[in-house]
Amino acid sequence: MGARTRRQQAALAAQSDGDESPAGNGTVEMSSKKTNTTAGKEVKENVYLFAPNLIGYLRVVLTMASLYYMPLHPRTCSLLYSVSCLLDALDGYAARYFNQSTTFGAVLDMVTDRCTTACLLVFLSSAWPRWSIIFQSLIALDMASHYMHMYATLSMGGSSQSHKKVDSSRSWILYQYYNSRTVLFICCALNELFFIGLYLLSFSSPILSPSLLQPVPGSGAESALTASPWSAGALEMARANKIDSFWPWVITGISAPVMALKQIINVVQLVKASNWLVEGDIASRRALQRKRN
């Protein structure tokens, strides 16, 4: 084979290699591009359908059902209300197990808790009108302390900060309350149990039942009080002494100290959140003053 022939073959081989090389690189580039596209593709998640949020929706349904039965059916109402409260612990476990902790879920959980307790306290205000100022104050304290705490956490700690993440240096009692699941569960459960006990006593206790509906003999008030089945008098007459009062008294007595502790924690939470917000205000004003100077 001559030198020219060898040079031609070498040139053809080089051309062939040159043609294959871009194709190979192109294949690698295409493959790499596909891989990057696949890797970079965002997986769309429906937060509304996360397991803990589904449990939250179920809690709302159970709470609404308990409110429906609340005026005249203490056993059914107490059962539905208690199941809804117990699911409060399950949704937190589901969030950790499925790695589905979200801000929406945390807010849904807190709003459900606050509204559920408030609705029960509203009923107790109507059942025990002489003590309505106490129940109204408990509603206000519960709402205010949790709102202030969550707002302070989000505004001062950042939007990704959980309201349950409390530093021990800020408040020892809040740190113990939020960082121990056992303490948190016991306080919340027995707090609700105390109000359930009072709710059951409104059906059962002749000691606590108001005597306003006992008509004066010969006054004709018997028919006036119960003329309408929707009147307060008719409702109370229908509610009176439906169940035995022994266990409601036991439930109320056992849970009362924890309920009192929970209210103390609410006061501490309100004060600490207020102080945290004031600290932020002072820091902002100082920064603004330095900027002006």
Automatic annotation (TrEMBL):
<feature type="compositionally biased region" description="Polar residues">
    <location>
        <begin position="28"/>
        <end position="37"/>
    </location>
</feature>
<feature type="transmembrane region" description="Helical">
    <location>
        <begin position="246"/>
        <end position="265"/>
    </location>
</feature>
<dbReference type="Pfam" id="PF01066">
    <property type="entry name" value="CDP-OH_P_transf"/>
</dbReference>
<feature type="transmembrane region" description="Helical">
    <location>
        <begin position="183"/>
        <end position="203"/>
    </location>
</feature>
<comment type="similarity">
    <text>Belongs to the CDP-alcohol phosphatidyltransferase class-I family.</text>
</comment>
<dbReference type="InterPro" id="IPR048254">
    <property type="entry name" value="CDP_ALCOHOL_P_TRANSF_CS"/>
</dbReference>
<protein>
    <submittedName>
        <fullName>CDP-diacylglycerol-inositol 3-phosphatidyltransferase</fullName>
    </submittedName>
</protein>
<keyword id="KW-1208">Phospholipid metabolism</keyword>
<dbReference type="GO" id="GO:0016020">
    <property type="term" value="C:membrane"/>
</dbReference>
<dbReference type="InterPro" id="IPR043130">
    <property type="entry name" value="CDP-OH_PTrfase_TM_dom"/>
</dbReference>
<keyword id="KW-0443">Lipid metabolism</keyword>
<dbReference type="GO" id="GO:0006661">
    <property type="term" value="P:phosphatidylinositol biosynthetic process"/>
</dbReference>
<dbReference type="GO" id="GO:0003881">
    <property type="term" value="F:CDP-diacylglycerol-inositol 3-phosphatidyltransferase activity"/>
</dbReference>
<dbReference type="GO" id="GO:0005794">
    <property type="term" value="C:Golgi apparatus"/>
</dbReference>
<keyword id="KW-0472">Membrane</keyword>
<dbReference type="InterPro" id="IPR000462">
    <property type="entry name" value="CDP-OH_P_trans"/>
</dbReference>
<keyword id="KW-0808">Transferase</keyword>
<feature type="region of interest" description="Disordered">
    <location>
        <begin position="1"/>
        <end position="37"/>
    </location>
</feature>
<keyword id="KW-0812">Transmembrane</keyword>
<keyword id="KW-1133">Transmembrane helix</keyword>
